[in-house]
């Protein structure tokens, strides 16, 4: 990648040489504001979280590279033409499509198989949540708000019934890496565009988000609030105001209720 592409690296430590484990590179979309920091691509964050968890377990060394898709560097165009991130590179092999990336992590990357828990109930539960956010932002009517609220309530009830830290148990899995970025977009974009807030009475859901906010896998991969907002502004053909572009990035991670451990 060219020098104007920001690179962050997570390497094995504690006496383990990075050469003892495979190095995986994940190319993600950069911010649409500054072209360097992490952008608000949901799939990019989801796979970043998956791979970060594996890097924490020392099964891989992870390198994350951001690419400004508004001005992609020449070597990116040469190697990947019109392909958009996320792109996973494993020992020179580029994996380009979301489903193929998931399959590659599960089947080819050390430790990846353990992330992909089989749970049809949870898979069905979190399905289509993001679509309800997009409808709410476009339609801006009470019915769409209600549909999203109903879905969030189902997730809350599931978490309350299982009484576990994460969706399938007390260990994170692929479903958490899929759900939490979407909850963050709902929280940040919902508040900004339609004054939507996740109700405080959904205590199991807030407790879940609290636990996720404590994890490096989430905080290190999470885009700034401004980038989430601009992501949807661009979809609605709205432009950021100059002062918004110059704002210091903020990250909403507070919890509006008291969480008793």
TrEMBL record:
The keyword Cell inner membrane does not apply. Its main location: membrane. GO terms for molecular function: calcium ion binding; chloride channel activity; lipid binding. GO terms for biological process: negative gravitaxis; response to alcohol. Keywords: Membrane, Transmembrane, Transmembrane helix. Pfam families: CLIC-like_N. It is found in: Membrane. It is a single-pass membrane protein. GO terms for cellular component: apical plasma membrane; mitochondrial membrane. Residues 22-105 form the CLIC N-terminal domain. The keyword Transmembrane helix applies. Belongs to the chloride channel CLIC family. This is CLIC N-terminal domain-containing protein. It comes from Drosophila ananassae.
């Amino acid at each position: 990648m060219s020098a104007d592409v920001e690179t962050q690296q997570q390497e094995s430590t504690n006496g383990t040489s990075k050469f003892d484990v495979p190095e995986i590179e994940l190319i993600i979309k950069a911010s649409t504001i500054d072209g360097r920091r992490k952008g608000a691509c949901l799939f990019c964050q989801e796979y970043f979280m998956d791979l970060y968890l594996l890097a924490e377990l020392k099964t891989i060394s992870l390198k994350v590279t951001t690419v400004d898709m508004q001005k992609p560097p020449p070597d990116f165009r040469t190697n990947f033409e019109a392909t958009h991130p996320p792109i996973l590179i494993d020992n020179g092999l580029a994996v380009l499509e979301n489903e193929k990336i998931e399959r590659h992590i599960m089947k080819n990357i050390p430790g990846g198989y353990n992330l992909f828990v089989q749970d049809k109930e949870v898979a069905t539960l979190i399905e289509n949540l993001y679509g309800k956010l997009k409808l709410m932002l476009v339609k801006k009517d009470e019915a769409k708000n209600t549909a999203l609220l109903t879905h969030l309530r189902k997730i809350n009830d599931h978490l309350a019934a299982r009484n576990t830290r994460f969706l399938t148990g007390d260990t994170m899995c692929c479903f958490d890496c899929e759900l939490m970025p979407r909850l963050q977009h709902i929280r940040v974009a919902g508040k900004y565009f339609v004054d939507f807030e996740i109700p405080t009475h959904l205590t199991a859901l807030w407790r879940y988000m609290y636990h996720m906010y404590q994890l490096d896998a989430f905080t290190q991969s999470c885009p700034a609030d401004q980038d989430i907002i601009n992501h949807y502004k661009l979809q609605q053909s709205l432009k950021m105001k100059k002062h918004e572009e110059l704002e210091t990035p903020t990250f909403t991670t507070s919890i509006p209720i008291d969480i008793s451990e």
